[in-house]
Write a structure and sequence with these properties.
CATH architecture of the largest domain: Alpha-Beta Complex
CATH superfamily of the largest domain: Spore Coat Polysaccharide Biosynthesis Protein SpsA, Chain A
Helix content: 40-55%
Distance between the termini: 33 Å
Oligomer: single chain
Strand order of the largest sheet: 3-2-1-4-9-6-10-5
Shape: globular
Order of helices and strands: EHEHEHEEHEHEEEHEHHHH
Number of domains: 2
Radius of gyration: 20 Å
Largest sheet: 8 strands, mixed
Structural class: alpha/beta
Length: 321
């Protein structure tokens, strides 16, 4: 039977989370014989291969590929090149998808032949401030105003699907060696070339983010690196207007962004607090503090990536000729 959907799951040394993710994919309402699951292991130490082998004895459409510490962009491209489905979906290994996730993906693409990508609603069931701030910032990146019209211009790759045909020309930019910015860069390439996207908020995934402060700060730093690299490639990106990768403007932009940290933290903190039930003074101060910390480490990532670019790293949009 032909495969309709290929679900690609990049993973990196998160065995328990991956098992939970795969369990949700194997519990779909969509026929299992019409879907395949492609696991791309970025550690290749044998632990994930054992999980794959055990599941494949019952579900032959599970496939396993390995690489070593090459990053999510290369992992996703490996999965794309190995897939056979007419629809290619991505989910992160620390996510659990709703039972109708694949069903909604297929119906969405069949009902919207001119739409190249459909993203879902990613939610967190947590009260930890680092998790809430991270998810808030991620969701805020999906839509922005372009020419006075709100447009969907991006989806995090933890919950998104594409028509296969788009990958005949485009790929994730493998010059992004870290988790951050590669999905932002791809979506802006697609948007500028005239493709449009749909946000299906009933296509749900629960994201079990790491609740530690270390993980929160590391992610902010990586996003700072990735976003500056994306701005270096696409100077017109509407989400990255505050960044300037050019040598002549970079340090001025950093000074301006540092000065704006209190305002950034206050405005976004208030937006997040509106949706929070617990609003004691300690919670309010913690929310503001986490936005400050996120911005500080984001700027640190900007600076680190600026030096990498300045030292001769040449990057361009990854489009097939």
């Amino acid at each position: 039977m032909p495969i309709d959907v290929s679900v690609i799951v990049p993973t990196s040394d998160r065995k328990i989370m991956l098992e939970r993710c795969l369990g949700s994919l194997l519990d779909q309402t969509y026929p299992k014989e019409k879907m395949e699951i492609i696991i791309v292991d970025d550690r290749a130490d044998g632990k994930i291969a054992i999980i794959s082998d055990n599941l494949r004895s019952r579900y032959p459409n599970i496939r396993y590929f390995a690489q070593y510490n090459k990053g999510p962009a290369i992992a996703r491209n490996l999965g794309i090149g190995s897939s056979v489905g007419e629809i290619i979906a991505f989910v992160d290994d620390d996510c659990v998808v709703d039972k109708t996730w694949i069903e909604r993906i297929v119906e969405g693409h069949q009902g919207n032949p001119d739409i190249i990508a459909i993203g879902g609603d990613t939610i967190v069931y947590a009260s930890k401030i680092p998790i809430l701030v991270s998810q808030f910032l991620s969701t805020c990146s999906i839509e922005t105003f372009i020419d006075n019209k709100k447009e969907v211009i991006f989806f995090p790759t933890c919950n998104v699907s594409f028509k296969r045909e788009i990958f005949l020309k485009y790929k994730f930019n493998e010059q992004f060696p870290f988790p951050g910015g590669e999905d932002l860069e791809l979506f802006w390439c697609l948007y500028k070339d005239g493709y449009r996207f749909i946000w299906d908020k009933k296509m749900k995934a629960i994201h079990y983010r790491d609740k530690s402060l270390f993980s929160f700060l590391k992610q902010a730093y990586m996003y700072g690196r990735g976003n500056l690299l994306a701005q270096h490639i696409h100077k017109d990106h509407p989400l990255l207007k505050e960044l300037k990768a050019d040598k002549s403007l970079f340090w001025l932009s950093m000074v301006i962004n540092i000065v704006k940290i209190p305002r950034f933290s206050y405005i976004l903190g208030n937006r997040l607090l509106k949706d929070m039930q617990e609003k004691g003074i300690s919670v309010i101060l913690s929310v503001y503090a986490h936005f400050v910390l996120h911005k500080v480490f984001y700027i640190a990532g900007n600076i680190r990536e600026f030096f990498r670019i300045r030292n001769g790293i040449y990057v361009k949009s990854y489009v097939q000729s």
